[in-house]
Design brief:
about 75% helix; ABC transporter permease; transmembrane; transmembrane helix; single chain
């Protein structure tokens, strides 16, 4: 038998003897990290430019409106909270399209998803936490300018109860819109591992399709076919948001206001989009983690 000549060197590694935290702590940390990364925090300086420039572009018009109301003494805001969200919807779509690949593409592209799932974290939990991170980031992004408007309205002396009720409706709608956008852009990004392709795919889905839906609704209204316009509104997250806001009397007016069964249809499609995209995300990460 040959004599062994190998030597074990002690280079200072120490064993970990602290508390072992479970999946909940891991998921919490993953959520916080994802939320920070959606705004470029904890990443390079270049990564912070786009999200904060878009946030500033959404917020500055709200600040200007606050100044106008305060100086001129208007008795109400020139635009409702829900309608303001619709006015900046293109910027919201760009934020979602640009930041979704950060949370859903990079780990798959670099195969680091295998390292994540080597820990006691299931693929379904990973997908849900990533979706929650992007949804929360979108809520912060959308609700920030709305809260600026609300604060300005109170400073201008507008009636508190009326403004608070309108703000409450707008915030509920913001949650629905954020959950929808996070699901769709996350799903596109999880399949388009190249960031550029993911952004283009999300922009086409949110901006191009949304514009086409608006054109169809305008033509349908002009031709006296409101049912066609209402049906077209089911195919875009933006028009779903607008239709629900109009039906809820949140201060917006669609080409044709959804009533009766159409309100149920708009709510059901919104719920279907959110649950369907989340389930597909879970399936995608389960499949990726099994390789």
């Amino acid at each position: 038998m040959a004599e062994r000549t190998g030597t074990i060197h002690d280079i200072g590694y120490r064993g970990y003897d602290g508390p072992r935290e479970g999946s909940a702590a891991l998921a919490t940390q993953l959520f916080v990290t994802g939320l920070r990364h959606a705004f470029g925090l904890g990443r390079s300086g270049k990564s912070k430019i786009l999200p904060f420039v878009l946030l500033a572009m959404c917020t500055v018009p709200a600040a200007i409106l606050v100044g106008v109301v305060t100086i001129t003494g208007l008795s109400e805001l020139p635009v409702s909270y829900a309608s303001y969200v619709n006015q900046v919807q293109s910027l919201i779509a760009l934020f979602a399209a640009a930041q979704a690949p950060v949370l859903f593409s990079r780990d798959l592209r670099h195969r680091s998803i295998v390292l994540y799932l080597a820990r006691p974290l299931s693929p379904s939990t990973f997908a849900l936490v990533r979706w929650l991170s992007l949804t929360t980031a979108l809520i912060v992004f959308i609700a920030g300018p709305v809260l600026v408007l609300y604060a300005g309205a109170l400073l201008a002396g507008l009636e508190v109860g009326t403004q608070t009720r309108a703000l409450g409706k707008a915030l509920v709608l913001v949650v629905v819109l954020a959950a929808t956008l996070a699901g769709l852009t996350g799903l596109i990004s999880s399949y388009s591992l190249r960031r550029g392709f993911a952004i283009v795919g999300s922009v086409v889905m949110l901006v191009v399709v949304g514009t086409l839906v608006t054109i169809v609704q305008a033509v349908a209204q002009e031709e006296g076919l409101p049912e066609v316009g209402l049906a077209a509104g089911l195919f875009s997250p933006g028009s779903l948001y607008y239709g629900l806001a109009d039906a809820w009397d949140a201060g917006v007016e669609m080409f044709t206001e959804p009533t009766g069964a159409w309100v149920v249809a708009y709510a059901a499609v919104s719920l279907l989009v959110v649950t369907g995209s989340v389930l597909l995300l879970v399936r995608r990460f389960t499949k990726a983690g099994a390789r």
